[in-house]
Amino acid sequence: MQFPYQCLASREATETGEGGWTLFGACGSTLVAQSSSGGTSTWTKPDEPVAEPQPKDADAEGPPEKKVKLSEPPKQKKANFTNLIVTSDGRHIVAVTGEDKCIRVFDTNFENQLRQLSERPMSRRPCSITLTSDDSTILCADKFGDVYSLPLIPRPDYVIPEAPAEPVQEEEWIPSATVLTVHSGRNRKTLEDQLKQKKKGPAPPKDEMKFEHQLLLGHVSMLTDIVNAEVDARHYIITADRDEHIRVSRGIPQAHIIEGFCFGHEAFISKLCLSNSGRLVSGGGDPNLFVWDWPNHKLLKKLPLLDAVAEHLKSRPELGVGEVSKVAVSGIWSVPNSDEVLVACEGVPALFSFKIDATTNKSTHTTEYSGAMALKGNALDVTFLPTSPSSSSAVVSIDHVHKPGSTKEVREEKDIHRLQCFSSKENGIWHEDSHTAEMLKSFHDQVFDVEAGASRGDGSATGDGKAGLGSADDKALRDMLYSVENLRKRPGAEE
Question: pTM of the full predicted structure?
Fold first, then answer.
């Protein structure tokens, strides 16, 4: 069974002539690269050594222990890729593997051979990464709410600073109030929260990061996305979190200074995108996309995303999807050489095109939504190949394991292509690009085991091609592909 590509990235490759490109994809814990000339290469994370159980000393006192028969050896720890970006010069790839919280940097040569330069485990799991405009620094936002900066290439002469002295252990805190002395409902709730926190004990310490890094800024909520921006030679860091906040901070070295906030979302924010005109487009759990004049912290327009999704699904009754009441934005991509964005929603087999330049002219609001690109599976990621100087081809990674329109049901059809390619003509309408799809046939034919990261050439991931589907392994795959809706706060849940 072939597994989907959960991440895609691309670069221009002029070594092979005008219109040359290289496509990178992450399938589980494996990276795949293919150039426009047809050459492919892969990189797979080496397996971690598994410690063998130590035999018990024969001279040890006491009765012999009962032997426990192991049905199978312990599994290797997974390290699936969650983020993938390419530097502007195309020489380096920056990636994140989620399970081990590592930021990995690769370089790629003329033959697109992938070589890992560094791996740096963060203290908290990264949720989004980006690069500064000069490609020298990685900006990493984590699920704890912090943003760190790391040099793209670690300095060999960097010296790890000495660890601070161990803090003196404080005496155990005991609240002075009791349920007998507290009478109001609010105070009783506060006391219950204090007792509950005391029972949990102190928060676990962060893992020590033994490499060069700097804490830039922090939110009080889980971060979901980060964007680096530049206006009039001034740099800014834009961050979004689960609590509906978009924060605009100054760039390095003044990232601690807050320029302002973009308020307006009523649900979580999952994705940020800067259009070619410099507008900020944000989306998440709200029924609309938001378009911002972010330097002035002003909302320009709301684009009706939920209506577009409902209209498209209604036009495809074969999907069997009922009424749609909510959406969760899983991706927003700016189209090169155009003031247009493509939007994907979790569990929806389509991409939605919006013209951002029309948002400042109320008389042309009917042209803001351009239409939908029907897909054969749920959209996972999008990248653009520079096939010609004036146009680009969009390569879409689709989920060919689950049924279109569902994040749980496994589809019965086989031999579904994991990629779909589209090109935009002069009229701005997207059409399927069969020529590019044929060029990526070898990219599609790569088969990997998502859990172990091993390449197989027999067309199966676990031997019979069915193991894992509908089982715990299938749940692990589903959790890896679909996590945006989990950001939505449940009614009555503690915040």
Answer: 0.83
